[in-house]
Amino acid sequence: MMSRYSKLRFAATDDIINYGCLIRRSAVMENKVNDSTSKKSVLVLSVALCIAVVAVIILGIAVIKNTSNDRKLSERVKEVELRSAENAKDIQYVLYLGTNDKDTNQPVYSKEEAKKVAEEILLRHFGGYTIQEAEGGWKDNDKVYQEYTLVIFLSDTSLGSVHKAADELIDKFHQSSILIQSNKTTTEFYAKGA
User: Fold this and answer.
1) Mean per-residue pLDDT of the chain
2) What confidence tier does 20 reach under pLDDT thresholds 50, 70, 90?
3) In this structure, are residues 9 and 56 in contact, taking their beta carbons and an 8 Å threshold?
4) H helix and E strand count, the chain
5) Which residues contact 151 (CB under 8 A, 6 or more apart)?
6) pTM greater than 0.70 (yes/no)
7) Which range has the top average pLDDT, 7-11, 49-53, 66-70, 176-180?
8) What are phi and psi of 28, to 5 degrees?
9) Are 93 and 154 in contact (CB under 8 A)?
10) Residue 111 neighbours by CB under 8 Å, 6+ apart
């Protein structure tokens, strides 16, 4: 498909060719080219006109080729953007951090202190976090245990980074382990008007 610019360019090229031929034809037909200087001038003008026409044609071909390449590039960018949106699925890591000592089953910190210690570790490892407070419980040998638990949500990170932070949390809170869930999700940082 030819753009409006291309049509105008080719129309201008046709006009240049027709104008050059008209000048040469009229000069020859009216026999106004009598001396050799005038003949040379018409010849030089004709050659210059032919070179200009060739240059316009080459330019036109280059523009058409670039337009085609630009269209292909634009289609490729759209394809990559769509694929990126599909692959933008993220992993959200949810950590369940108990706060009772693994041996004594007594709280290592008060609720406020536990949250503050966890926040400091998370900020150092991730720069951001979401924490929810929860109460967890389990039964062992017919005895029911209760525990203040911090539920930590992390996105835009890797499992390796989560494990490094979990190692530090396990040490600080005297835990045997931390439950880590990996949930596939799609993450978007939405901003109004963006």
Assistant:
1) 78
2) low
3) yes
4) 4, 4
5) 94, 95, 96, 97, 131, 132, 133, 134
6) no
7) 176-180
8) -75, -45
9) yes
10) 99, 133, 148
